[in-house]
Write a structure and sequence with these properties.
Mean pLDDT: 81
Number of strands: 0
Number of helices: 7
Low-confidence stretches: none
Number of domains: 2
Order of helices and strands: HHHHHHH
Largest sheet: none
Strand content: under 5%
Structural class: mainly alpha
Shape: elongated
Distance between the termini: 75 Å
Radius of gyration: 23 Å
Helix content: 55-70%
């Protein structure tokens, strides 16, 4: 069941008025998990909508500079938007967008005997 924005706003108003989660669940006749997720998303993202991972901005950053790695993009997102994402989640987002990173080829360990040319 998808809740309307009005219902979500009503839940947030009750939450801000220090009404407990259990009371909100009983009054609104909504599951505890739904109320918990709505409150969590509102406190983390200041939005009543679903989580916004800012994929368009991430894709734009990657296309403008193809040599940026997930850690650098992650730090830029945190500085500009204030959303903290793990590096692994950032790699998953980049893979889902079709922007796969290149990994260096594994090279054998060279010993000194191999470096000397006969």
């Amino acid at each position: 069941m998808v809740l309307s924005i009005e219902k979500k706003a009503e839940i947030i108003v009750l939450y801000k008025n220090k009404v407990s989660r259990c009371q909100i669940t009983r009054e609104m006749d909504i599951s505890d998990w739904s109320v918990r997720n709505i409150i969590k998303n509102y406190t983390n993202f200041n939005s009543l909508n679903r989580k916004n991972r800012h994929e368009r901005q991430i894709k734009r950053m990657c296309i403008t500079d193809r040599f940026q790695h997930a850690g650098k993009i992650n730090s830029i997102i945190y500085e500009t938007i204030g959303v903290q994402i793990t590096t692994r989640s950032m790699q998953t987002v980049l893979n889902n967008l079709g922007l796969r990173a290149r990994r260096p080829a594994k090279k054998p360990l060279l010993i000194t005997r191999m470096n000397t040319k006969p």
